[in-house]
């Protein structure tokens, strides 16, 4: 069952949205202020976030920006009230997936929700086989090779590498990596990430001491570069 987080302070809209989405079989959580919404969204576990712009404590633009900066990739559907807001949604590179203008019909909203969720699932399956340099990784079969010779990666190393590749060129914090790869329910030290990156470098880099793909970003964490 897909889980949807709605961040919307207008009670009537929030309640109507909750009812409509629950009727469609979604698991829905509603929250009325931006700050709380942001921390819930950061905790993860949602398949979609429906985000209003005008919110108490922290507006939707800020929530959206912060989520993307924190490496949260959950799809976001923005609710806007004015045409000026639409310009801003489109103009700022907020990383939102789509927007709906108020007032909207339940049918229109549901269609957008379904489309976004479908898209998200397609991209999830997006990386099956990935090649960089002389390395080839098959994430579906859990097979890897360097220069044609098989190399052994653990499931965790596959997951770690896939996460970094999915977000290539982005600096990802150790905490984000832990949350997304190890999972929030697992308690691990940020140093754990360093250890696994070191192992991966030995397996895939030509010169693990001077990596070309798995780069360390001082004070943040790591990024995958091609
Ligand atoms: Ca509002």
Q: What does this molecule look like?
A:
The protein is of the alpha/beta class. It folds into two domains: 3-121, Rossmann fold; 129-224, Winged helix-like DNA-binding domain superfamily/Winged helix DNA-binding domain (Arc Repressor Mutant, subunit A). It has helices at 11-23, 34-43, 60-69, 83-91, 106-124, 155-166, 174-182, 190-204; strands at residues 3-7, 27-31, 48-52, 76-80, 98-101, 129-132, 135-138, 143-146, 149-151, 172-173, 214-217, 221-224. The strands form three sheets. A five-stranded parallel beta sheet has the order 2-1-3-4-5, sandwiched between helices. The chain has a four-stranded antiparallel beta sheet with strand order 6-7-8-9, with no helix packed on it. A three-stranded antiparallel beta sheet has the order 10-12-11. Strand 4, helix 4 and strand 5 form a beta-alpha-beta unit. Helix 7 packs across helix 8. The protein starts with a strand and ends with a strand. Calcium ion binds at residues 9-10, 52, 54-55.
Strand-helix topology:
Elements: E1 3-7, H1 11-23, E2 27-31, H2 34-43, E3 48-52, H3 60-69, E4 76-80, H4 83-91, E5 98-101, H5 106-124, E6 129-132, E7 135-138, E8 143-146, E9 149-151, H6 155-166, E10 172-173, H7 174-182, H8 190-204, E11 214-217, E12 221-224
Parallel strand pairs: 1-2, 1-3, 3-4, 4-5
Antiparallel strand pairs: 6-7, 7-8, 8-9, 10-12, 11-12
Residues 9-10, 52, 54-55 line the site of calcium ion.
């Amino acid at each position: 069952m897909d889980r949807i987080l709605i961040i919307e302070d207008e009670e009537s809209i929030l309640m109507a949205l909750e009812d409509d989405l629950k009727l469609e079989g979604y698991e829905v959580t509603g929250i009325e202020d931006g700050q709380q919404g942001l921390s819930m969204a950061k905790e993860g576990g949602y398949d979609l976030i429906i985000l209003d712009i005008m919110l108490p404590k922290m507006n939707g633009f800020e929530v959206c920006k912060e989520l993307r900066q924190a490496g949260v990739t959950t799809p976001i559907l923005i609710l806007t009230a004015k045409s000026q807001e639409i310009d801003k949604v489109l103009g700022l590179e907020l990383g939102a997936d789509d927007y709906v203008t108020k007032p909207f019909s339940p049918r229109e909203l549901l269609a957008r929700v379904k489309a976004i969720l479908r898209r998200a699932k397609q991209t999830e399956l997006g990386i099956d086989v990935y090649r960089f340099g002389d390395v080839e990784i098959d994430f579906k079969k859990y097979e890897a090779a360097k220069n044609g010779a098989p190399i052994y990666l653990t499931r965790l190393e596959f997951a770690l590498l896939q996460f970094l590749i999915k977000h290539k060129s982005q600096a990802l914090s150790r905490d984000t990596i832990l949350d997304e790869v190890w999972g929030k329910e697992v308690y691990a030290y940020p140093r754990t990430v360093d250890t696994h990156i070191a192992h991966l470098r030995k397996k895939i880099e030509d010169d693990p001491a001077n990596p070309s793909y798995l780069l360390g970003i001082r004070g943040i964490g790591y990024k995958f570069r091609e």
